[in-house]
Write a structure and sequence with these properties.
With about 450 residues, the protein is α+β, with helices and mostly antiparallel strands. It is built from eleven helices and eight strands. It has a four-stranded antiparallel sheet, covered by helices on one side. A hairpin with a 4-residue loop joins strand 3 and strand 4 (about 90). It is elongated, with a radius of gyration of 40 Å. The two termini are about 25 Å apart. Its main location: membrane. GO terms for molecular function: efflux transmembrane transporter activity; porin activity. This is TolC family protein. Keywords: Cell outer membrane, Coiled coil, Membrane, Transmembrane, Transmembrane beta strand, Transport.
Amino acid sequence: MTKKISYYIVLFFILFIIGAPGGYAQVTLQEAIETTLERNLQIKQAEFGYQISEQDLYQSKSELYPNLSVGADNAYNYGLTFDQTSGQLIRGNFWTTNAGAQLSSSIAIFQGFQKINQIKANKIQLTIDATEVEKVKNDLVLSVVTNYLEAITNGELYEAAQQQVRLSREQLRQDSIQFQVGNKTLADLAQAENQVATDELNIMSSENAYELSLLNLKQLMELSPDTTFGLEKPSIADIMAEYAVTSFDDVFRKALLSQPAIEQASYYKELALKNIDIAKGAYYPTLNLSAGYGTNYSSRAYDMITQEQIRFFDQVNENKSFRGGLSLQIPIFNNNRTKVAVNKAKIGYLQAENEEALARRNLEKTIAQAILDLRSANRQYFASQVAFNTSKVAFETIKERYDVGMANSMEMFTAQTNMNSAEFEMIRRKYEMVFRGKVIDYYIGNPITF
């Protein structure tokens, strides 16, 4: 309950600020995750499946109780008929009315423990559906992290593209002045204009990518596309220190305890084992107890002495009856249906056992790949930093030479393009490293925050 209240507080805070006219708030990664978990329709769909399983469990428990039913009937007959109530053959051209009421109940005293095992199976199924809800939430958390970091990456690429176009425009302005005094050629001016056009194209591409990633994030959070908010950038130094030492054994051990898919596979195996017991129950005899109470009325019932018609309530009292009985059914041969059902249930158990092994194997493979990707992302980020710094020094050197006429416009264009590409690559590698680290947090069940 406390957790749910905190969700509503965060959700109210986000919607109040970013929904106000002109409102602009910074949404943290944790707030984005909490809003998604509270509002996303996929979670609600999984919760409906859980609620259906709750009803199945309730129904299976109710099957242990006796049933109870009340019935009443009324019939009219014209002409020849045999009156069951009065026990006589009725002739003549007149109407005969018959009525009756019954109260009945029955219960299965023994049915090979099938009902008990069905209750246990439905409890396991309820647990499976609960882990399915957690699995959907887990998948959504990873989707939010992916889209959140993708939006940050594209946003920073957009900012870098804006800086680059400002630099290009300033260079075009200087070259235009130099062209007017005869220090630059028309080719130099055209090359500067080409650089501005290239950088403006980068701005449009980066802006579109940023808006698309924000839209995907808003859709996960079930927010309006018109909603405006900012994103919190992570501390790169803290993240690099956090994942400096990451071992496969430690991550895999924690993932086995925290991943709903592994827990779910284990419950499916339990359910398959219980289905074997349910199928075997058909080998046992079944014993049922039934009881009933009823009475009847006939318009043609007469007193044998006075020959007067017996009154309605007198007939109801005199014609009452009670019945009770036990029925025992012993299965001998049912065309091997029970045998086949048991064999199928056993095969189902082997399938569930294999699915559990596959889930563990896939998790092991995924964890190993995630750690490898994290280490590779760290190395690539360091390499991209070096590449950007060296390309920046090269650009500044070429620019100095270009300004004094010792380098041509093509060399200048190439140096600036290399620096811009190196900056874009560094930004991508930086947030890829952050994402790979958060993937590790996801698998070991750590809170996903910056």
